[in-house]
Amino acid sequence: MPSLDVLNHPFREQFEVFLDEHRRVLDDCLEGLTEEQARRSLVPSRTTLLGLVKHATFVEKVWFDEAVTCRPRAEIGLPATPDESFVLDEEDTIATVRQAYREACEASRKAAAALELDDLLHGNRRGPLPLRWVYLHLLRELAQHGGHADILREQILNA
What we know:
It is a single chain. Strand 1 and strand 2 form a beta hairpin. Helix 1 runs parallel beside helix 6 and helix 3 runs parallel beside helix 5. The protein is globular and about 45 Å long. It is mostly helical. It has one domain: Four Helix Bundle (Hemerythrin (Met), subunit A) (Up-down Bundle), CATH 1.20.120.450. The mean pLDDT is 93. It has six helices and two strands, in the order αααααββα. The longest helix is centred in the C-terminal third of the chain and has 27 residues.
């Protein structure tokens, strides 16, 4: 019988490929836009293209810094709530937000590399969760926000 590690490997690889594809979709949604377009609000919520990428940075840090290291959000420099993570500051630009997102994604990859899919992450407010659950949750969230970004970008470019 193969070891558990061998059985998990293909699934883990698939998770990571899909995660990186969805990460790329969000990063690419800002490609070729002006700062005004990236900040343009087309819905009543705080959702903008730049805000979506900033929120995705928050999500990466919540799941792969807070959940892995058990450090509180304030210590990491994160807002207390997901809604606050969409708020854009004057210094937020396409370049700075994309760079922060890319760095957060790379830090997430490094943090997860030392873990197995069934390893529990103890630093989330929901309680201990296995990395497998975190990967599935992140896939769902990134796919949802990628869809939001696709629609917003289409509206902005066709305006």
